[in-house]
Amino acid sequence: MTKTLLSTTPDEQRKAFFALKTRRDLALLLNYRYEGLVYQLYKVPTEKNYETFSIPKKSGELRTIHAPSSKLKHIQRRVNEVLQNVYLPKPVVFGFIFGKNIVDNADKHKKKNWVLNIDLENFFPSINFGRVRGMFMHKPYNLPDEVATTLAKICCFNNSLPQGAPTSPVISNMICAQMDSQLQDLAWKRRCFYTRYADDITFSTTLREFPPEIAKVNSVLSIDLGQELTNIIQQNGFEINHGKVRAFAYFQRQEVTGLTVNKFPNVRRKFAMQIRSMLHAWDNKGLQAAEAEHYEFYNKKHRHPDNSPPSLKKVIKGKLDFLGMVKGKDNRIYLKYKKQYHGLILREKGLRRIRSFDESSIDKKPRIYTEGMTDALILNTAWKKLYPEIDCPFIIKDCHPTRKTSPETTIGGVDVLKNQLINLNEEAQFISVGIFDRDDAGLNALNNVKDYEVDMENEWRISLPRKAGCFTLPVPVGREKYEASKKLSIEFYFNDEVLSSKNKDGKGLSFSIYLGRREIREHDDPETVMKYTEERVIKDDGGKMTFAKEIVPALETNHFEPFVIVFEKISKLIEIIETT
Question: Between the N and C ends of the chain, which has fewer C-beta atoms within 10 Å?
Answer without folding.
Answer: C
